Amino acid sequence: MNASPNPVPSPVWCPRVTVACVVADGGRYLMVEEEVNGRLAYNQPAGHLDDGESLITAAVRETLEETGWTVELDALVGVHQWRSTEHGHGVLRFSFAASPVKHDPARPLDSGIRRALWLTRAEVAALGDRLRSPLVLKSIDAWLAGQRVPLSALSSLLPEDRYP
Q1: How far apart are CA 83 and CA 44, in angstroms?
Q2: Which CATH number covers residue 30?
Q3: Mean pLDDT, to the nearest integer, of 88-109?
Q4: Residue 163: pLDDT above 70?
C-alpha cells in the first residue's frame, strides 16, 4: 500500500519540540541576541527539532549554527512545557547542559541572530522581558541547582544522525 503524498492531519494535538543548551563557562552562560518579530530578544542557543533528527543532534547543531561554538552535551537539564506568547503554540523544550569545545569566529550565524555573548546569571535576569521566554532563566536555574539527567535516558530509534 502506498502512502499518500499529502497525509491527513492528525486530530491529535502536537506541540512544537525545541532544544536548548545551557553552555556554562566560569559563571557565564552562552546566549544569543536575536531579532524576533521586530524586537531584540535573548535566548540560549535553541531551536526546533527537525524531522528525522535526534534531540542530541539538534541541540549540538542549533548551538553551532547560532553561536559558532561546537559543544559537547553533558546531561539533560530538564523538559519544560510552555505555551508561547509569540505564536500561541504549545512548546515542549528539552534543555541540555553543554560544555564549550571549540569556537569558529568566522562561521556565519543563523539568520536573525545578531551575536553570541557570554553573560552571568545576574546579567541574564536583568534582561527581564527581553528574554525570549521564561524558560531561559528556568533552564539556568535548573542547571545551577544541579539538576541533571544522564544522556543515556534519551534514546533514538532513528537512522544514524545526519549531522556531525
Answers
A1: 18
A2: 3.90.79.10
A3: 93
A4: no
